[in-house]
Each structure stands twice: as structure tokens, then as C-alpha cells.
Recover the amino acids of this structure.
């Protein structure tokens, strides 16, 4: 029998309730009476909140002023506080006539970040590597000075966003190599080394960061000959590197464990030594696998930098807190809420950017493009 | 002569090439290196301490502390010893972490539900909550609650009145305090007996279901037992619990108890911050269960409740528990930030009060580390025990 003789049913269009903009609205907002109720209640709440926020942040806000007297009414934000202290928030106590050096570093940092966001053909890779190697060097030269006829600026004068970024990048860059070494040690077959690394990692992961920082600042001079000559800033950096490397080590251990055992066995079988196996076969794959988790740790490190204000540094949050308590701006709590909103937006821009970058890396199907 | 030399060298090389010999050498070398480092650090430390004239020893623990601690769960006065001060503040830390963990888990559960809801608005609301609270530093959030939000509350005379039993104002949250009269012990006993009986029923039901496949509503019966038994005992005893409700007197509130703004701010900050993480973990856990599982349980006639309680949750829990444990540990550790807003926690007592008074940095740091490591270890052990229950027995 010829199949064409069977009376086929013609394909029907999908029921119109499930397609088009109306279908989409029905599925997402009004799929049941309960959902409709939620939609209506939420829409009203969001409208009220958005209205309040716009009134607070834009319409009733005070944008310019020199002291707390400029913001008498509590129904509007006090952005005058931010605009008045802006240079302090961005540059800290860096000498005013040397702001251009910080600006150069900011521009270089922006170029480095952008070079990682977009791909531009075969030069991409070389440019990224160049920036990764030279940016820290240039940043060091420009920020600290003391060479190439640049005036020396002590690290105590760093502050605000500058200090936050410096601490975050040093902790991140320092903890990655230390973390790899610790992770290799922990997964090592040599029992003693693996045990020592395990205890080291678990110890740092078990104690609060603020305790570690206070401990390093107070105790490092006792444990090292001439330790009191080590700058407080450097002590804080060492503390940050110590516990963050423990967190990084766990990230890399996850990456190492994701490598199938066949990779180890195959490289052993073709006669590679331990270091060649790790360097050429295992680590490149393991590091690539652990990049998303690493980005999460980096976000954590960035947020953790705020605790340096508790040992008297003026990072972004610290300098905002100091300014809030200064004689010009000490005042009603609504100035505090505006200042914290500003700080939250600053931190949010960086952390949210990092998390978006990491999810982009995760979603990218072609792993070679990392 | 030369042949002898080569013979010896060859033997040495092949001796060295044995894996066990090399690994032993490396490990012993490492041990020696560590011991040398410890000796060196110890020596420098003792020279430095002698030079700086630091006192050592733990004798100071019995000295009079001389500072008040505001929320004190056990008897404490300024005349108590340093050791007492540490215990009181350690209890504060533990209480704060425990309450925050419970609240963050409950809120996190609701966030996960919101993010899994079919309603787009609710989903977006859930994810914006997560993004905002997860991406802003905890310390900043604590500052916000303490210095901005709680300071906007009205003064004592115009406090926010909640049904005439609780009052919220700038000096804290005044809540009723239960007063236990005679016979409360009996109610507690009834509660424990109910818990015991339900556990026995649960074990029996589980064994019967494993053997015969017959289900038994042990959870429902357990909940009924645990609520009804203590309540009926309380009814028989004419409800021996009364509430001490705060009342505004001439100048101040009388009766009840007060949650200080420091505690409230810590609780708000810790709960809201960690709930974002817990919510993401729970959502990921539920989504990690394969879609086919849900479809299969639907096709054999399970109701939604049964699908969740019998199929999805047991599998999701195995995924959820390790990261959630990590989050609980983070929460417990971050209570140390309480010293920034002046809540009397363990680290506040040691770093802010005892260290300046005694100057014995080394011993105090050691005690701090031990205290926090102890808390971390305790939580990790509890979660490991719980994890053993949820794990699928491997055959």
C-alpha cells in the first residue's frame, strides 16, 4: 500500500495560549491563580520600592555641599558627601600633585582588563601575556616611585579605592602560585609532605581572617629577627597571602582531582618525571578546569579586603568610615546610609563584573579560547 | 681501581633510583627542614620576647577582668576572671552563630524556592537578592545595619509597638521573656520522651520499609507526638509558663529582655548575607537532580509532595551538604567581625579588652585560634555525622 494513500493529519499550529507574547506572559506570570496573585503583589511592591528609590536617590537628593549641613532632610540621599570627598575615596592620601601617576596605573589596569574581555585575532595572546607581566611592574614603579626620577610615596599614603585594589591584586597574584604549590603538596604521594600541607591548609581555613591579620600584625615582629622593621602594610600582605593561598589550594586541588587518572598513568608510561608530568600534562588542564572556582575565590578575596580597615588601614570602606566620623560630616544616620550605598555600588561593580566574567568563561564552549 | 669505582657508583645510582628510597629521603629531609625551622622560630621568638620584656604563662587567666560584658548568658560581673570573660564571650559567639545559621538556612530555602518558581517576577527577585547580598562585603553590610538602618529607629518614647508585647527602638528590640515556674521540668521531659519515641518509630518504620516496602507515616506521627505530648502535659499542669512582657515605665522599659542593636545588626547582616549563598547552594542542589527522576516519579503516580520528599530532596541533600557545611563554617568564622561594631563576641573580648590590659599577645592569640578552630571542628563534625545519614549506602 502506498503511504501517500493514508490520510495524514496536517501539522497543527501550537495552541495559541502557549505562543507569542501573550503566551509568554501567561506562562511566566499567570500560570495559576496563585501565580497571578504573586505577580500582582510583587509588581505593586516593586513599583512602590522603585518609586521610593527614585525619589530618594535622584529627586530629593543633595548633590553638592561642603558639610553635613548641606543635607538636612532625611528623605533624600546625601551625595554631597561623596562628591565632596571624591579625591580622597579614589586616591587616598596620595600627594595631590602626583595624582597623574595613579591615573596612569588606573588606565593601565583598565587596558589589562579590557585585553582579557575581547579577542582580537592572533595578537590577543601576546598582548595579554605582555600586560600580565608588565602591568604589575609598571604599577609598582609608578605607585611607589623611588626610581626613574619619580618621587617616593610611602605605602601608608595609599588609601581609598587605590589601596583596596592594590591589596586585592597582590593577594590574588600572590596566592595563586602558593596555592598551586600547596595543592601539589596536599595531593602528593609522599605522606609527610601531604600531611603537613593538609594541616597547613585546614588550619588557615579554620580561623577567621581578621584574627589572622591581627595575629600577623602583632606577632610577626616577635617571630622574625628584626621583624619590627617590616612595614605594617607588608605584614598585612603576608597575612592575606597566607590564608588566601590555603583557599586557592583547595580550588586547585578540585582542579587536580577533576583530571582523569589515565592522564597521570599515560604520562608516567611515556617516561615523564613528576615535574614534567605536572608541568606539561596535568597542571595546564587542572588550572583551566579550576578557573571558575578561582574567580569565586577572587571575588571573596576582593570582598575580604575590607577587613584591613579594622587594623587601621584606610581602604575604600575605611576612608568612608573615617570621613563619616570627621567633624564636617558627622551627622544624622541618613548620611551614613547614602555613604554605604555608594560604597556598596563601588564594591558591587567590581565583584559583579568578576562574577559575570567567570560565568562567561564557564559558558564558553570552546575551552581553547581561555 | 676504576672498575671498583664504577661498580660502587652504579650501585649507588640504582639504589637512588628506587622509588621507596627517594621518597623516604625527601620526606625525612622535609621533616628535618621543618624541625629546623621550628627551632629557629622558637629561638628568635624567645630572644625577641626577652628583649621586649614580654611576660609569658597562663597565670593571668585567673586575674580579675574588670570590664563589663553586656549580653552575658551566664553569671558574669566585672569582678569575674579573664577566663570567665572568655567563656561568656565564647558563648555569645556560639549563640550568634547558631541563631544566624538557622535563620540563614530558612531564608535560603525560601530564596531557592523563589528562584525555582514558575513566576518570572519571583525568579528575578530571587536572583537580584542573591546578586546584591552576595556581592557586597559583609563588613559593609554590618556597618549599614548598625550605623545607618538601626540608628534610624525612633527613640524610646516613640518606639515601634508590636501588638503591645514587643517594642523596637534605637536602644534595641525589647521582647518578652518566658518565666518558668514549677513543673517546667516535666514538660521538658515529655518533650524528650516524645523525641525518643518518634526516633524509635522512625528507625522501625525505615527498617520495615526496607524489608517489606510497606511505608509508614513516621514523620507525621513524630510531629504530632512532639507537639501534642508536651502540650498535654502543660495543659495538665495548667500552663506553668508565663511571659514577662516589657512595659514602658517612667524613663525606661521594665521587664522582658532586650536584644541590643549590636546583636540585632550582627544577626541581620550575617543572616541576609549568608542566606544568599545558602539559597544558591540549595537551588543548585535541587537542579542537580536529573529531570528524569521527577518525570519518572510523576509517571508512577507520586504526588508533588511525595516526589519532593521521597525522590528529589534525598538526592539533592547529598549534593547540598558539603558546600552548606562550608558556608556554615564561613558564617561562624565571620562572627569575628562583630568586634567592628562592638558586639561582645570572643574576638572582641580578647583583642579589644584583654590584650590591651594584660599585654600577653602570644598566649591570647593561641587561645583565640584554639577557640575558633574548636567551633569550626564542632560544626564540621556535626555536619559529617548528618552527611552519613543522607549518603546512599554504597554496595
Amino acid at each position: 500500500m502506498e503511504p501517500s494513500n493514508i490520510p495524514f493529519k496536517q501539522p497543527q499550529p501550537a495552541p495559541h495560549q502557549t505562543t507569542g507574547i501573550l503566551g509568554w506572559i501567561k506562562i511566566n506570570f499567570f500560570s495559576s491563580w496563585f501565580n497571578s496573585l504573586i505577580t500582582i503583589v510583587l509588581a505593586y511592591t516593586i513599583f512602590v520600592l522603585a518609586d521610593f528609590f527614585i525619589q530618594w536617590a535622584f529627586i530629593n537628593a543633595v548633590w553638592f555641599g561642603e558639610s553635613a549641613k548641606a543635607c538636612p532632610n532625611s528623605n533624600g540621599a546625601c551625595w554631597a558627601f561623596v562628591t565632596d570627598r571624591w579625591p580622597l575615596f579614589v586616591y587616598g592620601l596620595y600627594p595631590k600633585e602626583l595624582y597623574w601617576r595613579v591615573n596612569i596605573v588606573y588606565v593601565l589596569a583598565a587596558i589589562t582588563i579590557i585585553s582579557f574581555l575581547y579577542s582580537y585575532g592572533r595578537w590577543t595572546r601576546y598582548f595579554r601575556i605582555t600586560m600580565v607581566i608588565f602591568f604589575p611592574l609598571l604599577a609598582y614603579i609608578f605607585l611607589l616611585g623611588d626610581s626613574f626620577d619619580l618621587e617616593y610615596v610611602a605605602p601608608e599614603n595609599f588609601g581609598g579605592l587605590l589601596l583596596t585594589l592594590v591589596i586585592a591584586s597582590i593577594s590574588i597574584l600572590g596566592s595563586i602560585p602558593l596555592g598551586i604549590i600547596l595543592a601539589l603538596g596536599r595531593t602528593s604521594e609522599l605522606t609527610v609532605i601531604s600531611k603537613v600541607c593538609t594541616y597547613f591548609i585546614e588550619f588557615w581555613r579554620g580561623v577567621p581572617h581578621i584574627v589572622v591579620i591581627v595575629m600577623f600584625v602583632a606577632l610577626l615582629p616577635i617571630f622574625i629577627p628584626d621583624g619590627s622593621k617590616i612595614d605594617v602594610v607588608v605584614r598585612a600582605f603576608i597575612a592575606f597571602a597566607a590564608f588566601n593561598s590555603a583557599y586557592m589550594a583547595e580550588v586547585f586541588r578540585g582542579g587536580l582531582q577533576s583530571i582523569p587518572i589515565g592522564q597521570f598513568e599515560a604520562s608516567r608510561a611515556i617516561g615523564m618525571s613528576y615535574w614534567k608530568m605536572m608541568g606539561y600534562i596535568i597542571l595546564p588542564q587542572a588550572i583551566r578546569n579550576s578557573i571558575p572556582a578561582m574567580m569565586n575565590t577572587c571575588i571573596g578575596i576582593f570582598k575580604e579586603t575590607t577587613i584591613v580597615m579594622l587594623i587601621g588601614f584606610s581602604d575604600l570602606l575605611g576612608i568612608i568610615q573615617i570621613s563619616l566620623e570627621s567633624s564636617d560630616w558627622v551627622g544624622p544616620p541618613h548620611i551614613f546610609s547614602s555613604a554605604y550605598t555608594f560604597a556598596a555600588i563601588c564594591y558591587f561593580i567590581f565583584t559583579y563584573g568578576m562574577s559575570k566574567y567567570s560565568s562567561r568563561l564557564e559558558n564558553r564552549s570552546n575551552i581553547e579560547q581561555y | 681501581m676504576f672498575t671498583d669505582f664504577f661498580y660502587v657508583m652504579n650501585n649507588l645510582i640504582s639504589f637512588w633510583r628506587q622509588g621507596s628510597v627517594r621518597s623516604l629521603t625527601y620526606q625525612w629531609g622535609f621533616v628535618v627542614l621543618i624541625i629546623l625551622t621550628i627551632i629557629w622560630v622558637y629561638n628568635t621568638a624567645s630572644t625577641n620576647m626577652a628583649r621586649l620584656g614580654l611576660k609569658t604563662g597562663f597565670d593571668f587567666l585567673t586575674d580579675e577582668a574588670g570590664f563589663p560584658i553586656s549580653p552575658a548568658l551566664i553569671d558574669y560581673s566585672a569582678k569575674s576572671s579573664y577566663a570567665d570573660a572568655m567563656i561568656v564571650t565564647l558563648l555569645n559567639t556560639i549563640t550568634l552563630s547558631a541563631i544566624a545559621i538557622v535563620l540563614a538556612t530558612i531564608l535560603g530555602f525560601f530564596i531557592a524556592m523563589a528562584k525555582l518558581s514558575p513566576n518570572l517576577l519571583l525568579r528575578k527577585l530571587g536572583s537580584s537578592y542573591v546578586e546584591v547580598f552576595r556581592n557586597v562585603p559583609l563588613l559593609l553590610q554590618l556597618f549599614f545595619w548598625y550605623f545607618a538602618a538601626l540608628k534610624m529607629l525612633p527613640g524610646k518614647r516613640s518606639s515601634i509597638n508590636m501588638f503591645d508585647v514587643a517594642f523596637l527602638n534605637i536602644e534595641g528590640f525589647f521582647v518578652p521573656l518566658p518565666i518558668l515556674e514549677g513543673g517546667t521540668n516535666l514538660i521538658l521531659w515529655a518533650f524528650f520522651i516524645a523525641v525518643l519515641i518518634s526516633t524509635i518509630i522512625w528507625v522501625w518504620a525505615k527498617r520495615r520499609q526496607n524489608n517489606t516496602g510497606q511505608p509508614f507515616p513516621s514523620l507525621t506521627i513524630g510531629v504530632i507526638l512532639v507537639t501534642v505530648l508536651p502540650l498535654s502535659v502543660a495543659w495538665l499542669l495548667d500552663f506553668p509558663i508565663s511571659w514577662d512582657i516589657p512595659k514602658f515605665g517612667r524613663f525606661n522599659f521594665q521587664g522582658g529582655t532586650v536584644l541590643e542593636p549590636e546583636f540585632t545588626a550582627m544577626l541581620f547582616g550575617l543572616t541576609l548575607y549568608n542566606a544568599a549563598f545558602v539559597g544558591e547552594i540549595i537551588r543548585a542542589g535541587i537542579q542537580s537532580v536529573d529531570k528524569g527522576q521527577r518525570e519518572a516519579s510523576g509517571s508512577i503516580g507520586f504526588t508533588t509532595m511525595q516526589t519532593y520528599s521521597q525522590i528529589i530532596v534525598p538526592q539533592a541533600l547529598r549534593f547540598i551538604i558539603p558546600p552548606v557545611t562550608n558556608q556554615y563554617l564561613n558564617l561562624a568564622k565571620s562572627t569575628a567581625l562583630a568586634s567592628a561594631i562592638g558586639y561582645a563576641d570572643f574576638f572582641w573580648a580578647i583583642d579589644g579588652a584583654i590584650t590591651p590590659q594584660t599585654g600577653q599577645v602570644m598566649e591570647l592569640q593561641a587561645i583565640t585560634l584554639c577557640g575558633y578552630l574548636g567551633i569550626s571542628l564542632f560544626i564540621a563534625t556535626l555536619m559529617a555525622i548528618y552527611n552519613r545519614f543522607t549518603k546512599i549506602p554504597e554496595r
In short: The two ends of chain B are 64 Å apart (CA to CA). Chain B has two domains: 82-174+249-390, 177-244. The domain at 82-174+249-390 of chain B is CATH 1.10.3720.10 (MetI-like fold). The mean pLDDT of chain B is 82.
